[in-house]
Amino acid sequence: MTSNTNTENGQSGKTEEDSTLSSQAAPEANEPVVVDKARFSKVWILPILAALIGLGMVYNDWQNRGIHIQVEFETAEGLEVKKTVLKNRNVDIGRVKKISFSEDKTKILVDIEVDKSMGSFLVEDSEFWVVKPRFGATGITGFGTLLSGAYIEVSPGQSEIEQLEFKGLETPPVTSLNADGIHLKLVSRGNKPLKVGNPVLHKGFEVGAVESKYYDDLEQEAHYDVFIQAPFHNLITENTSFWNVNGLSITTSTQGVNVTMASLDALVAGGVEFGLLDGALPGLGVPQNYQFQVYDSKESIDEQRDYKFVEYVLLVEDSVGGLHKGAPVEYRGIRLGTVSEPYMEFWEIIDVAGVGKEERIPVVIKLEPERLMKNGYIAIDIFKAMVDDWIKEGLTASLESANLLTGSLMVSLQPGGEPIAAVGQFGKFPVIPSSQGGFASLSKKLENILSELERLPLNATLANINGLIDSADETVKTTGGVIEKASKTLHTLEQSLEELQSTLRGLQPDSQVYRSVEEMIKKIEVTLDEIKPIVKEVSNQPNSLVFGEPASSDRQPKSSKKEGN
């Protein structure tokens, strides 16, 4: 009963609701229908317009926003945020936005916003540096920044790899990366360092400059990057030589004194020069970054250049004092090699010969055949075979004086020794037989002469000489008395002759007495004529009676001239 009642009530309730809705949904045709519409308020116009303008500004800022890069410098001297500009060939292409320290506080990081259109400048080999007043040996640079302030200059590279972080240069590059020419690397082992900016010369013309330098502590050599501008870069070949110049060069030769002066820059700061040696062929061209050695001077190239060589050893009995590494080895005055080791290490000698079994001093030399030829070539093994044949035929070596003032020695090679059947060996080195040098031989001869002099009875000889001198003095004194007596006798004879002449005047010329006296007077006169030269000589040189007359010089034969010719 209950369920039926609920069912009936539910059905009856549903009927009532449906009837109500039906009456609302289906109004009568003549009644108006009211519909609510959404309205747009004019208040929203300004906010929407502001939002659109803001979005446009953001888009425009994003569209025109530059490229942000970071450049590392050692110092921020002359740089200011939002004031310092980035330039290329005096055109502004960016501006400094931020300056900060690196994480380790040792470097300065400069953030720069670069014009978006200049993105092609930002490649890995681009260079950045600060342009400011600089004073150097080559002059004053950056003088215009005294009023405008410092700025950062960029030199675009040639790479195609983009990059946003760079390491700035502390000094401006000497040449542009886009300049026509050739970049070379130079190595110097001398004690005449070059400076960045020093000129590169060729026959007095400045054709390039030194771009950078650094020193290798391990190899103990200086390395330089240089640039040779076009068209002079075509002169660089594999046979080109580089040497230092100091602006003023004074050389002496058999033709006199030669004074050469380079450019003013080289005179003040030095530089490097290149060229071909006399008689050298040009050779082939070289690529970029080809390496050359720098010599101390043009005259020292032959001594300092690297030659192919073969080593020999000399077993010397003479003293090696004055023989130094690098001393010349000559063959009849022609440079053929260099002394490699003035003496071998003690342990090397023991390893080869044993303890105390070799009293001679081993001297290692290098024979360099390229010194004999400028353009030719000879294989080392062929040259060694030639030298071995010379040794078998009697080639010897000796120590000779290279400079009497300094006492330096050199090695001299000469033929004429005893032929040998085979070349000796001392360790890993073949042996050139040694002989006593001229200086050592001369010293030995002097020692022999002094020894002979010591054996002579000099004391007895000096005593005899002193006695002879004393006897000569006594003889001279006696001779003086004889001369005095002879003078008196002559005077008496002259008086007697005068008396005889006066007597003869009183005699008859035809008488026998007159003729006899006259003949006697003539004989006396002849005798006096013979005595007078002797008396005169003794008067002028009293010791002539002891030592005799000095030997007269030999008469020189002369051709007789015939009359009438």
UniProtKB/TrEMBL annotation:
Record-linked InterPro entries: Mce/MlaD, PqiA-PqiB_transport
Name the UniProt record assigns to this protein: Paraquat-inducible protein B
Organism: Glaciecola nitratireducens (strain JCM 12485 / KCTC 12276 / FR1064)
Subcellular location: Cell inner membrane
Biased composition (Basic and acidic residues): 555-565
Every Mce/MlaD domain range: 66-157, 318-416
Biased composition (Polar residues): 1-13
Region (Disordered): 1-28, 542-565
GO cellular component terms, A-Z: plasma membrane
Alphabetized UniProt keyword annotations: Cell inner membrane, Cell membrane, Membrane, Transmembrane, Transmembrane helix
Pfam families documented for this protein: MlaD
Keyword rRNA-binding included in the entry's annotation: no
Chief location: membrane
The organism's taxonomic lineage, starting at the top: Bacteria, Pseudomonadati, Pseudomonadota, Gammaproteobacteria, Alteromonadales
Transmembrane segments: 43-62
